[in-house]
Amino acid sequence: MTERGGFEGLDSCVHCGFCLQACPTFLATGDEADSPRGRIELMRALEAGELAPNDPGVALHLDRCLGCRGCEPVCPSGVSYGRGLEASRALLAERRGTPPLVRAALAALTGTGGDMRATRLVYALARALRATGVPGKLAGWGRLRFAFGMLAATAPKDGGRRWRSVEVGGGRPRANLHRLPPPSMTSPVLLFRGCVMQGLFPHVHAATVRTLEVNGYAVRDAPGQVCCGALHAHAGLRGEARRLARANVAAFGAGGDADDAPPLIVVNSAGCGAMLKEYGHLLHDESDGVGQRFAARVRDVTELLAERGPRPGAPIDATVAYDPPCHLLHAQRIAAPPEQVLRAIPVLRVISTPDAAQCCGSAGLFTLVEPEMSRAVLQPKLASLAQARPQMIVTGNPGCVMQIGAGLAAAGSPIAVRHPVELLDESYRAAGYYA
Amino acid sequence: MTRDGRSLIAALAGIVGARHVRTALPERITYARDGLPTHRRVPGVVVLPGSRDEVIAIVRLLAALGVPFVPRGAGTGLSGGALADADAVLVVLTRLNRILRIDPRNHLAVVEPGVVNVRLSAAAAPDGLLYSPDPSSQTACTIGGNVAENAGGPHCLKYGVTATHVLALEVVLADGQVVELGSLSGEPWGPDLVGLFVGSEGNFGIATRITVRLLPIPRAVRTLLADFAALRTAGEAVSAVIASGIVPAALEMMDQSCIRAVEDSVYAAGYPRDAAAVLLLELDGAQESAVAADAETIAGILHAHGARSVTVAADAKQRERLWQGRKKAFGAMGRLSRDLVVQDAVVPRSALPDVLETIARIAGAYGLTVSNVFHAGDGNLHPNISFDGRVPGLKARVDEASGEIMAACIAAGGTITGEHGVGLDKLRYMPLLFDGDALAAMRAVRRVFDPEERVNPGKVVPVHACREWVGSVNAERGTRNARADVRSDFRVPTSALET
Question: Is there a contact between B331 and A14 if contact means CB atoms under 8 Å apart?
């Protein structure tokens, strides 16, 4: 950790206010205290000791920040808002403790209560419940019903019933593919599994492995890996985040062949990816830049795929809306690669709603602990999606899949939300790559 | 908290709902500054009405209690104008953000005051129309704030400032009366009251409905970037362009320090880093061929007056990048130092080369970094002084340098503000420009709208310098003389900072 713990990232703010309209919570309330500029005032006062971390007027507005970092890419002075926010939340957590709901959610979802068996049981029960189809039927706007909607949104979806893969040019799609040269070299990569992704989205991991292999990557496992710590860092639990980061550095450190540079680390959750890329900052004071070196190896799955093209698959005749996750677009500044991945699917039409870059209100545990603001932020997105009428929504982060999925279900929409690699995987399957 | 304070808060909550009344100190602190953060005033209460009717009810309540209040939009103003003291209520209008009507046939729109400037143009674009005044903060600032400050912007060179584009206003006066100023076809009779209200810096009441003119989006546009090896040459080229008889839609200048800050940011536009200054020009019109011919003429003039290169934006995307860089330059100043004072002065265009050199000399004498980014075609300067407020005594030096720059602009035949307004920041310069009689006359005009001087008190006219205050020379501190007129002195002293 740096000397000022991240607060130094706020120094360049000159109060111009150009961030205001990029902030989903400011758009929802119109209140400066719910804007990046207003929160920077609060954070600076916290650091200076002018305001106390347990002052409810401070906590309310910092708690209500999604941490989407939509303010960062529009800031002319390059203020590191996210770092200031985490530093502030660490102060808040130190002073007032962690709310029981957050503790419980972290223990259940990430296993950081110390009992991985309990966490595995939680996910097994969730998958069993999901398989009954009941959560989807119960989905709605209430706190519990929204949670059911979120769970239902995690289910593997078969696109086949909504559209057909199209055969173009009269021949079987796979006929074209044999003309493609095989990838010139096979690069080893290590898959970051995470907690929610592993528990509820194993099908996305499978699709990640398959699509990467088609594009010349050999995906290997890194045993001993744990949760990335993003949810902990957002909750101000930096100690736990650092403990998890060290465990991951150890688990992934040994993955390389003896003399070679250690292999890249591939992640398919934008939230986890953003956190893993922050390990340099998180482990700033650890010996010999281990965090920095780890972070430099992390790639989103779409970055790796885009680097190799990716190889085209079979056509899918559908219109999908791409919704960039905040932690991909704003935090990692990855804009083009997911669209390149989707462009590898012939015929597929990719649209973008005007406010696509705006947060959906998921933000990790935010949707559970700040339901009112979370839903208020989700509403404009649902409205513009309803207008655009895509057949499916594509986004590369588990939280966004669940949040948008639950919102659509509550609004009575049949539109499904999926990860981009799932679509590519379907296209590859139809093309015969896996035959 | 006094009983007066509590009952006021309860009454406000009765109008807008408790969640839209902000009383906690941290919340009020977030409203203590605007876009010029060297001024800081913590308001007594912040209220966020959601409708015109709520605004009217609030103003009537405050009139009945004799409580001062300050209207505020997005808080992007640059003169400390939208700040309220601890005994005043800050009325924040961001929630009044509906575009009520766009009339494409008559080229007009009716908006609430909290509509963000750029959103109006976006909404009008499908009809081939735009709202012309384009202050650099247009992605954040509100039309209500633009009306209060008579906001300018690069394209005001050809199309005029906000006042040119406002046709009619519905205004809530300080006493709660609702009046209509102007009409769809301009002022129906008598004095130009809309013209008087626009630029009154929140001193005359709150505009709740604003009818503005929309213009057709120009069919042909050329954006030129010219770079110069010396500031003086660039300044001379500005006058040469204007002398040609061609009126550019915009004619902006940025110096090297600004260019580099922008090029380091996400808004990097491809300005040459080694240029002493660049000029950004736009020509527009209805005829492609005419605009192309003008562009060629102007490029020739720029070359003849020392431009090292002149490039024309190849497409709409590059044009947008060139403009984004210019418009976000002020926000990029945080890259130079953690604190910033942006100044706003106007000089005759012909004086630009000399004044720019004078500013550089003053900056050098005080050991300060000054970056210039401004509306050169209008002679409207914006020297930005970057400094580190933590260094003891530095802020005082910045203030002194600002004063000297302002005096130099006045000496050159200029004035103390082009578009940012007087607010709090320029109060101290008003007596440099106006004598006691003139200031007293301004105050008398204000009292026609607001006899108790309860709306945005203490701004614009340094009342201690007015004729009736002869004997006091401390104009800068004359921020409040209307105390006697104010019947309530409610306070919400919940702050450790205040007691």
Answer: yes
